[in-house]
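Example with several molecule types.
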Amino acid sequence: MFIINCPYCGERDQTEFTCHGEAHIARPDNPSEISDEEWGKYLFFRENPKGTHFERWTHDHGCRRWFNVMRDTVTDQIIKTYKMGEAKPVISNE
Amino acid sequence: MKYSLYNLVKNSFSYHENWEKAWSSPDLKPEYDVVIVGGGGHGLGTAYYLAKEFGVKNIAVLEKGWIGGGNTGRNTTIIRSNYLWDESAALYNHAVNLWEGLSSELNFNVMFSQRGLFHLAHSVHDMQEITRRGYSNYLNGIDAEILNQDQVAKKIPHINVNGRYPVLGALLQRRAGTARHDAVAWGYARAAENLGVDIIQNCEVKGIDISNGKVVGLQTTKGSVKVDKVGLVPAGHSSVLANMAGFSLPINSVPLQALVSEPVKPILDCVIMSNSVHVYVSQSDKGELVVGAGSDAYNSYSQRGSFDMIEHMMAPLVELFPIFSRLKMLRSWGGIVDVTPDRSPIIGKTPVKDLFINCGWGTGGFKATPGSAHVFAETVFRGEPNDIAAPFSLERHFSGALVDEAAAAAVAH
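Resulting structure tokens for the full complex:
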């Protein structure tokens, strides 16, 4: 089980949180101009990496705020948590 | 060697020590007409039907681990076809039709047991949902019976219909049931090899060679191989393989857990499913209760679910069956399932020529094994999906024609 470090509340049990999928997906600025394929990709297609994943979580049973998590999907280890709007961390190859 | 009473008696004279292996371990040849990536039930079945129904001679199935070691051997073995939408009903009922003859077709006892499945309803909304789905099933020629509370209490031994979330009724499919899951993989593997299919275990695909938009070869941990056609049937690792071929999928891979209790004498003679309180349970022929529930909500390839999910499975189980409260749970395990936005599979063509994909079965692929393999074999052979497979194309995520079993609630997830 994880201990998740909420950027607002500090370390809390995983059961207080919910994961809401991949982060840093921007809605296209011009939805009426793009093709069905581009729109479908925005709506449904996901990276689903085996390795480092950037995802959105909410602290439902705490501050109820949204934040981003950088996590390894092989080990389930959380590398970093950060606030919405902060830049996407760089993946290092260490 | 055919499995028969004659051969059973004959082999008993040599203390059952001279049975030949169900399948061998051949070396990877340099070239194949068709390579199926993924040696689970769906992949082995695809190879079997390609050889048997379409006469393809030179086929290999590449399996990263061992036969029956992936999701085929990790599920709760439930088989049913009472889905809401016409497209799903056609696909899953095709599978149930094949399940009914599978043991004799493969000459391998897959222990298919049509013990009936009760989908419980706990609220007025649930009753409306099962009524709607039951009538939809009638129209699609799928057996369905809508039961009230008294009928449920009479038919299911030891159920508590007056719990915190009372059981108001159930949708019963009598043709539904369970099968021995690893026997399905073993049976298809043996039958496929008898038709000349090479089953290569411990062989992981590391790269996909594409030339002028067509698949031409695979790089594996056992060397490279030239191919004419490739069928990807990788379940949890679908996105990983799709990325090797240069495209992405509308899929998230998440952990799904199951567990079994200590074995007890026969106590539950049917399959119970409840979406609302969220648990599934049946009793195996060994006597263990096989229990499953929902997947975790986060992406993972760890083959481990989160610990709190176990409590989420046990709480509704003991609420529905107080008599189970003193049973000990023996084992729990996880598998990685590839979930699509509409909880329907993806079967068909990919952006790469002669590279086909069968994935996205999410939390409910086992029940579809023979049907999925059968329609995918035809898709690979003809290069086009048949009428049953056509609605499940990757293209539906661009056209918007989703087969939305997630919203229809016929898929527990």
